[in-house]
Amino acid sequence: MRVVPVACLKDNYAYVLVGSGGEGAIVDASEAEPLRQVLRREGVRPRAIWSTHHHWDHVGGNAELAREFGLEVVGHVSDHGRLPALSRGVDTGDRIRLGDVEARCIHIPGHTLGAIAYFIEAHGDRFVFTGDTLFRAGCGRLFEGTASQMHASLTRLAELPADTRVYCGHEYTESNLRFAAKVEPTNEAIRAARERAAALRARGQPTIGATLEEERRTNPFLRVRSPEIRSMLGIPSDADDASAFAAIRAAKDAFV
Questions:
Q1: Quick one: which of 179, 176, 159 has its CA closest to 229?
Q2: Are 229 and 183 in contact (CB under 8 A)?
Q3: Which candidate in 28, 107, 132, 151 is catalytic?
Q4: Of 53, 54, 76, 151, catalytic
Q5: What is the pLDDT of residue 256?
Q6: Which of the residues 54, 76, 107, 111 is marked catalytic?
């Protein structure tokens, strides 16, 4: 299986997953035309749209593409009525197929209550599509869920195999890493990640697709037990993990 990132809108990513025989699925159909162009260029016959959550900048092309290509639209079961063209509601543990590739659905509430990730193991490779829940070196804002829900969702994702590559919904990496460096200034993995991200963006390339192992070393929202982060943000050493996460999220919300 191949993963083709598709730049949409201002800083969104949609993805075209290309399976054997040219069949494909779209993850987060932000807008229709850029996806049409990639489908034509790659010679892909789309079969489904897999939506990570209902926000308009991730589903704006759902209805148009579903009608044009006769696609099944997958999303969390709770998003019936607010995710355009949703035709199959799924929940944690459900599995969906694209030819010989199977994705496991993981409900990850926090950014929205119906957020869902798609985890794929195929031919020795692992991928997870996280929408706006887990970003490169960051996480989404809490628009509908609680800090405890988001922390639990991120913990669930972080428990996936270390070599899993993370494909998220936005190009926020450089800003996220600036914040990470502020709250954990002695973390050398963050410094190295900033250099790599800057080089990629200078070449006009996306920064997404880091492994979960890299996220565990550089993402402050997966590092809530870091003594340095707690010290920098005034989080008590005995605070529980969800409370520490909430404090880090509040600091990121105020970060410029």
A1: 179
A2: yes
A3: 132
A4: 53
A5: 82
A6: 111
Is 170 a known active-site residue?
yes
The pTM assigned to this predicted structure is 0.97
Inter-CA distances, 81 with 54, 75, 77, 78, 114, Å: 10, 11, 10, 9, 12
Q: What is the pLDDT of residue 100?
A: 81
For the segment 183-210, what is each residue's pLDDT rounded down to a tens digit? 999 999 999 999 999 999 999 999 999 9
Active site residue 111: yes
From the centroid of its chain, how far is CA 201?
Answer: 19
Report all structural domains of the chain as residue ranges with CATH numbers, in order of start.
Answer: 2-253 (3.60.15.10)
Whether 123 sits among the annotated catalytic residues: the reply is: no
Catalytic residue among 28, 54, 55, 151: 55
Q: Can you list the positions of beta strands (E) in 69-207?
A: 72-76, 88-90, 95-98, 101-107, 116-122, 125-131, 134-135, 138-139, 165-168
Cα–Cα distance measured from residue 119 to residue 107, given in angstroms and rounded to the nearest whole number: 11
pLDDT in tens, 77-115: 999 999 999 999 999 999 999 888 899 999 999 999 999
Active site residue 132: yes
Active site residue 57: yes
Farthest CA pair distance, the chain: 55
